[in-house]
Amino acid sequence: MTITVLDTCPAMRDILRAPPADRAALLRAMLAPAAGMYRYFPGEVDLVAMHRMGSGFPLDRDEEPCREALEALHDADAWPRIEHALEDALAVQLAATPGITVPDVTVLIVLGDPGDAYFMGPALGMTANGSVPGYLFLNFWPYPENLARLEATAVHELHHNLRYAEGGVVWDPATVTVGEQVVSEGLADAFARQLYGDELGYARLGVPHLHDDAVFAKVVEGLGVTGMRNFTAWVHGDEAAARFGATPVGLPAGAGYAVGNRLVDAYLAATGRSAAEALHVDSREVIETALARSA
């Protein structure tokens, strides 16, 4: 298994210094090695459009703030730190589950968009995706809290990658439930906490509502909801749902992360397993065990 962290820093420097008319082509070339993360999308994907939709740095404004932010990521050693963290995390995971299939992984690190109100506000300057085996997408604005959590964020996404790799949990769009994503977020956080502790291991998005019983009860009501278009509100909250054209359900930002952590912690406490050992556990088992424990 090979982990390839694409050295996107020089390319982003070039893009941010290039004439505006040349930037889209340069960005497309930078993104091309990670285009496989969109392999399940119908038809040909416009990589530049996906970059914009994913809160990637803008091509037509905010050049100076973006240049400064990029240097902050560089000075924080983001690329080598993430590479080392993924290698260490993989070793821990393989020690716990030596027989799993591990894909080669390509890691795309990009700078976020300082003019995106949702990204800089409710999303706390970070978006990421590790759900497509073989690819990790990590998008940061260098808030100090995000720089402190570079390793934990990457490890969280690696856990998703390994959970859904060949031989692991099957994400079937026709039948997958909110409960599966909520549990997967809780497991990924638990794995990051196993390596980095609670202070850094929790995804920041879910921390404010970890102990909110009303949020817990509301998300538990929706664990059986299907239809991936509905997941955003239940997992990321109403502000994310509004941003991406989904229907709000009355939940704050990060609600699904908070509830996923509570469910997973209850399951791990009941079974004595570590997060690494629970990589491929069925989400229904986690939910049933956790709810029975809290009844």
From TrEMBL:
InterPro entries: DUF2268 (IPR018728)
Name of protein: Uncharacterized protein YjaZ
Domain DUF2268: from-to ranges: 102-288
A Pfam family this chain is assigned to: DUF2268
